[in-house]
Fold:
Amino acid sequence: MTKHDIAIFGSGSLGTGLAAQAYLAGFNTSLVGRASWINAIRNHGLNLEGKVKTHITENESFKLFSEKEAVNLNLKNDGLIVIGTKTPDVIQVINDYFPIVYNENSRQNILMIQNGLNPEENVKELFKNKYSNIKDHLVGGIVMGIGSRGNDLSNPTLSYGVKSIILGTWDEYTRETQGAISKVMSDLFYIPNCSESILMAQQDEYKRHRYVKAMMNSANVISAVFGAKVGEIADNPFLWESAKRKISEATKLANKEGIDLETSQILKQTFTVYDTIVRKHYASMCQDISNAIDNPGKKLITEIDDLDLAFAKKGQDFEIETPFNSHYGHMMRELTETYNKIVSENPEKAKKFIGDLVEANRHLIDISGMNGMNPLLVRNDTHLPSKVYDNLQETKQKYAQTEEYKEKYAITTEQEKQPIRILMVDDEESIVKSIPKLLKILYKGDETFRKNYNLEFYTASSGQEGIDKVAELGGVECIIADVKMDDIDGVEMSQKIEAEGHKIKVVFYSGYQEEKLRHATRRVKGKVDLISKEYGASELYDAVKIAILQGEIERRKSNYFS
Structure:
């Protein structure tokens, strides 16, 4: 049997892609993975899409091994071992396969390509006890790129693209470590369009890249619990706020370690990736859930301990608060434990548990129509994660009789509610006096909305007085304005206020409904609606609520990177 240059463990999109590219570059390559995928390629070949489009079949230079067949692996003494599995599976790979493939007296190097802040840390103790000299041959890898593996086992297809592979180690470099990194780099330089693969000469630079990649993975739990594509996280300001808060916490941890990172810079970089490269993809933890559901009885395994919870642990070590990483991290772990308990008893019930939870969570972030006015989308940034926590507990109670989760992690809801100022402007005295009173009554009876929003009402009896009142208050969030007034009409007043730099939402309230009035109100950037005075106060109140939500969305989007 031909001795192989590279043995790759893990047949996900990353492992399969690396194996295919290595083979195409002329390396004798072994790929070890789950029997279903390995047998699918063995029976039908592999369609590789991306920069290189080709069809690959098993042969002496491209050998496939299921987990049980891996006893037949035959790696060269100076070959490269690549562990491309998910982080939680790394220790099992080492225990199961290293006695077969690793020769302690050889010059074999080990490349670990996992997500997480410091995945190599997880194996140190194991290597120390079993393979004492391996530390000088262990190299970490950070992959920048995307890949997706098709689920059709009758037509195995892989879409694959790697921008760069960053090599290094978290620990201090030795001469042996430098040699190992150089050798791994030369082994991987075959990857097409991956000339950015770099040797990390500085330990801090490798740590920096680890931090940045782990921060970008902030989408993982959010994508999972909301069933959201990554692009939706970029588009929805309430989802982005949670990702933003997690990244901000992680940046403080990096700075504490002496790694120079700026929150605004990382936010812009992350947003660009979310909005372009991975926009149409579900994050890996969401894919993990889908894969578990598609394989009844299969347990759910995620990398949460090496992402959000790794940041939370560092926060404890450094005495830096990380409420968002801790909350989302423990919530994902609790979800995982609950799902695995249910699926062991009733796979169909486990599927319904996830489905109900995601549906309840998506209701919280629905900003599509806004006619129903979701009152949960508030200025309070902790409100969304706390409501997702409540949904998890309710869904868990419905489907599972499980023990209480061991950690008390629910995020503390911030109680402060910034006032939202509503200005009523009309030159009819009866309107100015009556409408605010009616709106206050409706607001007082709207318990959920009142709990989340603090409305303050002001009045003005002319267009000029409205301009002066906005200046006096330093701005308002919403104006209810009559269109026709004697001195300055509502449109001109609103335009002058906007010209002063105030961002306002305007609900026009008029006794006239001519088309030319509607056309005139469109000149106001912040116009939300034109409500007839023939309607009751409830229609006006609903329009004001929509105006508040629109303003909140725009406010958040204007603060995406700060």
